[in-house]
Design a protein that fits this description.
The protein contains 13 helices and six strands. By secondary structure, it is α/β, with parallel strands linked by helices. It has two domains: about 230 residues, Rossmann fold; about 60 residues, Histone, subunit A (Orthogonal Bundle). Helix 1 packs across helix 13, helix 9 packs across helix 12 and helix 10 crosses helix 11. It is globular, with a radius of gyration of 20 Å.
Amino acid sequence: MAEDLPKLVIISGPTCSGKSVLAVALAELLGGEIINADSMQVYRGMDIGTAKLPMSERKGIPHHLIDIVNPDREFNAALFSSYALPIIQDLHVKKIPIIVVGGTGLYVKALLRGLFECPPSKPELRKGLWEECEKRGPSFLYQRLSKLDSKAADSIHPMDKVRIIRALEVIHLTGCPFSELAGSHGFSDRRFLALNLGLNIDRQVLYSRINRRTMSMIDSGFVNEVEGLLKKGYSPDLKPMKAIGYRHIVGYLEGTWDIDEATRLMQRDTRRYAKRQITWFRADPEIIWVDPAYKPGIINKAMAFMDRLDL
């Protein structure tokens, strides 16, 4: 029965919208625990560039699925879901309120609805696509994807190498459009009752926050963090090392840009990423958009959902 399903309060929204701080405030009031749904915060040693909340600001509240793998380990939405499910079940049995927070929309969707079945990757096929991407550029593969599956291409950024290559790989392995496989699944296997709150913040305010936080990351030792990762032997070609911020600092360390240009590009690309996040979340009709500045209203919604208005 639906009432027997675990209840999740989900805090979604773009980077720098205040998700982590709000999650701590809710968890503190509800007596709950937090599950991270950010695809970068799972990596150990990647702290400043992923904007992990410092331990001093977590107020002793358990945060699950942070710092669980090294940067050279594969991690994806399916793995995230497999890690999160037993944690949710355990907290549900203990009657501990569960708050899921993060800006990786696919992780949240995979958790709530599951992932569609598709063939496992073939190393030789993926290697060939990556080599072609490095040689001709992501725009070349993106044009190919647009011809084979325009609907999938419309949902993927032209420079998102990982998703472009995966979509082409699935098309090659199945002979079907990637978007058709995803659509046929429909992400319909509901496993939880969820209150999905999206933080609706003015675009210019958000961009200003992003610019300031980028400067704060640089001032807080982001360059040293990236240098330390490289000294430990983590290749700049690793997927997390190609993420926003990390690839920019690697470029600075390799002499591609000076620190001012690396910072400017990091700010620009983070703003673009935030715009793509907003587009993703806006397409989800189940998200309830709230003003992060009006915390009493958000807290009341969460408490009512958890049947804890008596607190």
